[in-house]
Each structure stands twice: as C-alpha cells, then as structure tokens.
From TrEMBL:
Enzyme Commission number: 3.4.21.89
Keywords from the UniProt entry: Membrane, Transmembrane, Transmembrane helix
Organism of provenance: Oryzihumus leptocrescens
Bias-annotated ranges (Low complexity): 21-30
Name of the top EC class for this enzyme: hydrolase
Protein localization: Membrane
This protein's GO CC annotations: membrane
Name of the protein in question: Signal peptidase I
GO terms for MF: serine-type endopeptidase activity; signal peptidase activity
SUPFAM superfamilies tied to this protein: Histidine-containing phosphotransfer domain, HPT domain, LexA/Signal peptidase
Residues in the signal sequence: none
InterPro entries on file: HPT_dom_sf, LexA/Signal_pep-like_sf, Peptidase_S26, Peptidase_S26B
Major subcellular location class: membrane
Length: 336
C-alpha cells in the first residue's frame, strides 16, 4: 500500500523543523528499509519458484499419467546405459501393437521370475495368426539378448519416448507410504494456497473494493474465471493452459466412465485414484464445485462406503455437463 502525507501534516512537520532550527533528516533505519524490502521480494520470489517447482512435479507425476495417459518408470539397472542410466526416469506412451517395430524401446512385464517391468530395446518381432505378438528384447549395455520370449496379448505396448535424468531418487522416495500420502494431499493444498494468494494479492473481489452489492452467484459446476486467470498468469503460457483444458474436457466422459466401472466392480482403490485426479485437476482449472464433488466422492471411497460413494458419484456426474459446457464456452472465446 502507498502511504501519502496530507498537506496539514506536512505543515506541522515544517513548523516543528523551524522551531528546532534544523530540517528533518532521514535516519539510518529509514535508509535500511530499502535493502530489507529487496530481501523480502527476493525471498518471496524464491518461495514462488519453489512452489511452482513442487506443483509442476506433482502435476507431472501424480496427475499427468491420469490426464495425458503416459507412464513413468525409474530405471534401476545399467542395462540400457548410456542412453538410460540407473536413477533416470523413462516416460512411455501407448503404441498400437500393429506399429510395434524392431529398434523401439518399450516398457513391459518380463514373462519370468517376478514379472517386473523392464525397459529394453526390441530386437525381434513375430506376429502370430491368433493376433498375439512374440518379441525378443535386449538391453543396449548387455552383451546378449534377454533369455526369454515375451508374448504381447494386449492391443498396445508402452513405447519409451523420453528420459528424465536423475529424477528416480525423488520418485522412489515418494513411493514410501508416508511421503506418498503427504505428496498426494499436500500438493493440491499447496496449489490451492498458491492460487488464492495470487487472488488476494490483487486486492480481493470487486465487490469488496467498491462496496457494491454482491453479484448473483454462478450456476453450480460453472468455471471460476478468476481462478483460471490466476493459473494462466502463474504458468505464463496461455497455449499450454488452453491445450490442458481441451485435453481435460475431451477425457472427462471417459474418466467418469472409469470411475463408474470401478464402483460397479467394488474396486474402491482404483475409483479413488480417478476421483483424486479429477479433484486436483478440476480445482486447478477453476471448476470449484466439480472439485468439491470429486473430493466428497474420494472421501467416501476412502471409507469404502459404497452407498455414499454412489450418491457422491451421481452428484459428480450431474455437474459434468455444466462443467464441460463452461470449458467449451471459455475455449471458444480464446485466441487460437
């Protein structure tokens, strides 16, 4: 807030200066306030950068796979060195089995021992008449082909498209029960605080500033434009935000169907993961009512209360059309 001195106060200050025969001098503490203000700004900027990093890491590891459909895996051995080293994280996307080819690096379950996931390069592909595909793989650093033949019965495989060096240690730590819980619940809370702080810094709502009567409340399930504007400002990439909104809207129905299927099968854990993803991402883009409904569903699933979960899902499903239309209206008014 800018402080201004009234003319009457200035006159009093001048009169006081004349009575003592000297002009008021700027004191050392006043001069010292400038570097203090600069230090506070630097600390605030550093805090914002750290928070953005945490939120980005949360989005990439906990939300991204549910929204964009990719998988991450930490490389534990040096079998694919030097391209993929121990501690690196691979990012894999679905690849139609018809496009599987020699030379691709894929992530799949080995057909022996503990059936763990490995990321190795395909060296042989043999397609069977019944539609299955037999493959042989090899680690780039290994001297020989893997001592097994894997049979792919799914319609897709996971092809490695990117490698993030040295991120594996963080993911391994987050897989611990305590840290994983903190990450899943503190991450969204930190994001919410981050967005709200941005709104508060701009001085609150227009009604508070002008003293006008409160405006009519929005229809439940509609988009909170202020929250979305804050997200766009913090990300500083309108194209990225628009693409995220489009992708979220395109996948909304399929994600709701996934929750419903898991509920029908009594798979509370799978349904809760989907509900948590919907909660975090909808809060991130300003669908506050939808996020609250998803949170209620996630809480019911955590208690494995089937009746409450079904009621909460019905409420969530009821808000989906309004949420989708709000996103479509918003995107229609955005520049391409």
């Amino acid at each position: 807030m800018r402080l201004t001195t009234r003319p009457r106060s200035v006159a009093r200050m001048r009169a006081h200066a004349s009575s003592v025969g000297t002009a008021p001098q700027r004191t050392a503490p006043a001069r010292a306030r400038r570097p203090h203000r600069a230090a506070r700004r630097a600390v605030r900027l550093l805090g914002n950068l750290v928070l953005v990093l945490v939120v980005t890491l949360f989005a990439g590891l906990a939300v991204g796979p549910h929204v964009f459909g990719y998988r991450t895996m930490t490389m534990l051995t040096g079998s694919m060195a030097p391209g993929i080293n121990p501690g690196d994280v691979t990012v894999a996307v679905p690849e139609p089995i018809s496009q599987l080819a020699v030379g691709q690096v894929i992530t799949y379950q080995i057909p022996v021992d503990d059936h763990r996931d490995v990321s190795h390069r395909v060296v042989a592909v043999k397609r069977q008449a019944n539609g299955t595909v037999q493959i042989q793989t090899k680690g780039d650093h290994n001297t020989g082909v893997d001592p097994w033949t894997a049979v792919i019965t799914d319609r897709q495989v996971w092809r490695v498209v990117a490698v993030v060096p040295h991120l594996g240690a963080a993911i391994q730590a987050l897989r611990g029960t305590g840290l994983r819980t903190v990450f899943l619940y503190v991450g969204p809370a930190a994001l919410a605080v981050f967005l709200l702080a941005g709104i508060w810094r701009r001085g609150g709502t227009g009604d508070e500033r002008s003293g006008e009567a409160p405006v009519e409340q929005p229809t439940p399930g509609t988009l909170d434009e202020e929250a979305l504007a804050s997200l766009t400002e913090e990300v500083d990439d309108p194209v990225c935000v628009r693409d995220f909104l489009t992708r979220w809207n395109d996948l909304l129905q399929a994600r709701l169907d996934r929750v419903e299927l898991a509920l029908d099968k009594g798979q509370f854990s799978a349904a809760r993961e989907c509900a948590l993803s919907l909660q975090v991402t909808s809060a991130m883009i300003g669908l506050t009512d939808f996020a609250d409904a998803a949170a209620a569903l996630e809480a019911a699933l955590l208690e494995e209360d089937g009746v409450s979960a079904s009621a909460a899902f019905t409420a969530l499903r009821r808000l989906a059309p309004t949420a989708s239309r709000s996103l479509q209206d918003h995107l229609a008014h955005q520049p391409n």
